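Appendix B, example 12.
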Amino acid sequence: MGKGAKGKGKKSGKKSGKQAGKVSSKKAKELETQAAEDEVIAAHEEAAVEEIQDVANALRVGKGFVLTDVDTSGTPGFTGKKLEGKAALKACEAELSDLLERLFAESTTGSKRSLLLVVQGMDTSGKGGIMRHVISVNPQGVKATGFKAPTKEELAHDFLWRIEKALPGAGQLGVFDRSHYEDVLIVRVHDVVPEAVWSRRYAQINAFERKAIAAGTTVIKVMTHISKDEQKARLMERLDRPDKYYKYNPGDVDERSHWGEYMEAYQAVLDKTSTVGAPWHVVPADRKWYARLAVQQLLLEALRGMNLQWPQADFDVEVEKKRLSAS
C-alpha cells in the first residue's frame, strides 16, 4: 500500500510539473507578446497625439441631447484607430501624472482645490478599467470610493450624507465608482422609494454639486455608455474565463431586463443635472481603449484649466544648499 501510494505521488508530481511548465510557458509568451506590443505603441506615441481633437466638447451633454442617438462604438474627438488610441493614452500619462502632483503640491501651501471624477454606467461598461489604466498613473493623492448598497447607518441619514463624506480633500483627485446618481437611477427603476422622493433629488444633487464647486472642487461627470449587445458579450467572456468568474454577478442578467428603463432614467439624469458648472460627458464605451483615452483627456482638460503651479520655496534655497553641503 505504501509502495502504491509512493508511486501515485510521483505520477502526480510529474503531472503538476508539466502543468506548471505550461503555465510558465504561457505566461512567458504573454509577456513577450505584451513587450512587442509596447514597442509598437511607443513608436506611434508622437503621431498618435496628433489624432486627439476636442474630446471634451465632443462628449459634453448640451441642450437637446438624446442618449439613444449616441453611437456606443464611436470615437468622438479622436481620429485614430485602436493602436493610435493606446499610443495616445501612453503618450499623455506623464502630463497627467505631473498635473496631479502639482495639484497635490499646491495643497501643501494652503490651496483648497481638488478634482472629482464621477463615473456612472451600466455593469461592464469599463469603470474598473478606467481606474487601472488611467487613474493609476499617479496614485498619490487619489481618493477612490466605490458606492455599494447603503448600510443601515447610511440609510439613517440623507442620501447625500455618505457622498459628502467621500468628497476629495485639498489636493486630491476623488473618484466615484457609481455615486449619488444611483439614488435617481436604480432607486427609480426598482421603485425603492416613491417618485415624490426621488424626483426631488435632481435639484438636491445640483445644489450639492454647486456647493462642492464653490468650496474649490472641480467636478467631472462621466457616463460610460455601452450597448446592450456589448454588455452581453462582456458578461459571456466572464463566464468563459475562470479568471473572470469573480467579476460575474448573476444579478447582472436580471438587470438587463430593465435596460430600457435604465436608459430612460439616465436620460432624465442628463437632462436635469448637466449644468454649466458640472456638465455630463457621455463616453461611448464599446471600445475600451477609447473610453480610457476619453476620460484621460477630460481629466487633462480640467487640470490644464486650473493653471497649477509648483509652490515657491518658503526658505532660502542657496542657504540650504550650503548647509547641506557642509553637513
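The chain is about 55% helix and 10% strand. Confidence is low (pLDDT under 50) at residues 1-12.
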